[in-house]
Design goal:
The structure is a single chain. By secondary structure, the protein is an alpha/beta fold. Strand 15 and strand 16 form a beta hairpin. The longest helix has 22 residues. It is globular, with a radius of gyration of 31 Å. InterPro entries: Biofilm_reg_signaling, EAL_dom, EAL_sf, GGDEF_dom, Nucleotide_cyclase, PAS, PAS-assoc_C, PAS-like_dom_sf. It holds the Pfam family EAL.
Length: about 675
């Protein structure tokens, strides 16, 4: 072959340095150069291809690659990534792999470099830094690449990633893997799956939504690979990404236009929303039945390959047979909605129907479990959004109880859901308008009898909803992500007030409650210290109260602990709040920089009613004292409770016996008394 004697920029030595089997083909599809890994994989030597004019594309290796696709690759200026393609070796073995095809021109003639990116080779190939460099050199021009450390912090990234994500190296290095994705339930589920796979030594590949520095959404085809650095002797992870935003946008537009789920033939969520809106407008009564397949991905992994038709198609056929003449939709991969006038007992009978008409895999019935919710219009909810939210809440309740049931929520629960939705909406407006206020509940030091600290508590009285108590407000704020906004607001107010009291000669500490969600942001400690600098408040006047749930997560996440220690070093102290109500492990008390234990008010309230509670309370106080921690009891309402707690050794007490949460002026009046 005359082409063999050309002076290639990409030669055999280059192919051998790549971590994947690679070959170079000419415009006729004939192999020109084989790398050593390719010879081993495909069962042929370089000498065997000399003089062989048979095209390796279409007729040998890549029979599935059409002539049109090959020509398109040949005449493009960009690399082409094909997610799955079947390769037939010279020993007739069939291998499924990802393929990267990179066209180039040498001496005026077109060629294509083909890299066969087998997942197992990806894992092995990046086990040393030298190979990692070669891998990056081969991929940087075509892919975005990001390297993470074992905790998920970004160590480095390439120019392609920076260009698409709009980050600068200075700003993105040190961010976490999770901060590259939208803050919603779908992303949380996907990122947790990716992270679990990586930590188990497995690669993960799929389409995911990410966000730029400014919060703009974009889509990538992501391959996440576990690696190991011999330089640092630590686990690392590599993300290889291809921007597919354009094709995804077109796909979404087509889906919205078509309104049809292609796999099942059912309407999709976009179409369902329109149908529901029309039915609501016409005031038609109906039941909104939400059906979700439990443990779907596990079932699919175990059985989907053995079923003649896909698991979803078989399941859809049974929905169509049982709910005849009803409106049906597929919401996502494993969730369906049926709109029906049928009675509740008939809807619940679908579970029995599934048992009587099972889906078979290799002559064995697939054990399908369904969690379902029935929401009625207009009795329960009155908008499409409310119907969906109520259904998701129902599914969550059913799964917590073990799954495999179709149930309705009570009227009281629907009323609570409606209130929750209203709170979410109004809270956004309240934060914009700074319509929240802060009250302070004092603590008395039992030795001096003086108020030495106050706890800052958020209060919100909305003109539409009325008073929203913290016990109701905080969980909703955490769930919606607004807790960060509230936390920032509370910190600033606490700093300002602590400084006012200090200037007035009142050396009083102010404690604020913090959520673990806030500390998942690696810059939390920095933000707190910046707020202190901005307000001029000494760090020693601020205390941060954390829950046992927070402590348990901080124990497992070293970067949270590091942030806490950084704040402690600056003078901020930490209080373990609600002690005794959370998790049983005390290990975090050894690891975390906790200065104070605050025993939960549930124990205080039953202190005089139960001898067992008295012994338990006494034991908790002694535990704290033995660890040289300050012990505070909250929820103290009577002198009898206070006296008993003082005999146990409590350092401070807090509760209505001292004062309800009060304004700064009321606190100052108490100090005079």
């Amino acid at each position: 072959m005359s082409h063999m004697h050309k002076s290639f920029t990409i030669d055999e030595h280059y192919l051998n340095s790549l971590p994947f089997p690679a070959i170079v083909v000419n415009q006729d599809g004939q192999a020109i150069i084989f790398g050593k890994p390719a010879e081993q994989l495909f069962g042929i030597s370089a000498t065997d291809i000399k003089g062989n004019t048979t095209p390796f594309i279409n007729e040998n290796l890549l029979r599935e690659l059409s002539y049109e696709t090959f020509q398109a690759i040949l005449h493009t200026d960009e690399s082409t990534y094909i997610d799955k393609v079947q390769v037939v070796t010279f020993t007739n073995e069939k291998i499924t792999t990802a393929l990267l095809a990179k066209p180039f021109i040498e001496q005026g003639e077109p060629y294509i470099l083909l890299l066969f990116m087998l997942p197992e080779l990806m894992i092995n190939s990046v086990s040393n830094s030298g190979t990692l460099i070669n891998l990056k050199q081969g991929l940087d021009n075509s892919f975005m690449t990001v390297t993470l450390d074992h905790d998920g912090f970004i160590l480095e990234c390439n120019a392609e990633f920076l260009k698409t994500s709009q980050w600068t190296p200075k700003r993105v290095i040190g961010k976490t893997f999770w901060q590259l994705f939208p803050d919603n339930e779908v992303s949380e589920k996907i990122t947790n799956t990716i992270w679990r796979n990586l930590n188990n030594g497995h690669t993960w590949q799929g389409e995911v939504e990410k966000i730029t520095k400014t919060g703009q959404s974009y889509w990538v085809l992501l391959t996440a690979i576990p690696t190991f650095s011999l330089e640092t002797n630590e686990q690392q992870f590599m993300l290889i990404e291809k921007d597919i935003t354009k094709s995804k946008t077109i796909q979404h537009q087509l889906e919205k236009i078509a309104y049809i789920d292609t796999e099942t033939g059912l309407m999709n969520a976009h179409r369902l929303e329109k149908v529901i809106s029309n039915m609501i407008e016409d005031e038609r009564h109906f039941s909104f039945v939400y059906l979700s397949i439990d443990k779907f991905y596990t079932l699919k992994e175990l059985h989907d390959q053995q079923i003649d038709q896909s698991l979803i198609v078989e399941f859809t056929n049974r929905i169509k047979m049982y709910f005849q003449d009803s409106t049906m939709a597929r919401i996502n991969e494993n969730d369906f909605v049926v709109i029906t006038p049928l009675s509740e007992w008939f809807i619940q009978g679908f579970l029995s129907y599934l048992q009587q008409h099972p889906i078979y895999s290799s002559n064995i019935a697939v054990p399908i479990s369904i969690s379902g919710g029935i929401t009625r219009f207009p009795e329960d909810q009155t908008t499409f959004s409310q119907l969906m939210k109520a259904s998701i809440a129902t599914i969550s309740n059913v799964r917590e109880a073990g799954g495999d049931k179709i149930v309705s929520l009570s009227k009281a629960t629907h009323k609570a859901l409606n209130r929750k939705a209203l709170i979410e909406k109004r809270l956004l407006q309240a934060l914009d308008q700074k319509n929240l206020k802060v009250l302070y509940q004092p603590q008395i030091d039992v030795y001096s009898g003086k108020i030495t600290a106050v706890e800052a508590l958020v209060r919100w009285e909305d003109e539409v909803i009325g008073v929203v108590a913290p016990d109701e407000l905080i969980p909703i704020a955490e769930e919606t992500g607004l807790i960060n906004n509230i936390g920032s607001f509370m910190l600033e107010k606490a700093c300002e007030q602590a400084l006012i009291w200090k200037k007035a000669g009142l050396d009083m500490k102010v404690s604020i409650n913090s959520s673990v969600r806030e500390f998942r942001d690696k810059n939390m400690a920095k933000s707190i210290l910046e707020k202190l600098t901005k307000t001029g408040c000494p760090a020693s006047l601020i205390q941060i109260e954390i829950t046992e749930k927070f402590a348990l997560e901080a124990e497992a996440a070293s970067f949270i602990t590091q942030q806490m220690r950084k704040l402690e070093n600056e003078g901020i102290s930490f209080i373990l709040d609600d002690f005794g109500t959370g998790y049983g492990s005390f290990r975090y008390m050894q690891i975390l920089p906790i200065d104070t234990l605050k025993i939960d008010k549930t124990f205080t309230s039953s202190l005089l009613k139960s001898e067992k509670t008295q012994k338990l309370m006494h034991g908790m106080v002694q535990l704290g004292k033995s660890m040289e921690l300050k012990v505070v009891a909250e929820g103290v309402e009577t002198a009898e409770q206070a006296d008993l707690l003082i005999t146990y050794g409590c350092d401070a007490i807090q509760g209505y016996y001292i004062s309800k949460p009060a304004t700064p002026e009321e606190i100052e009046a108490l100090l005079v008394k």
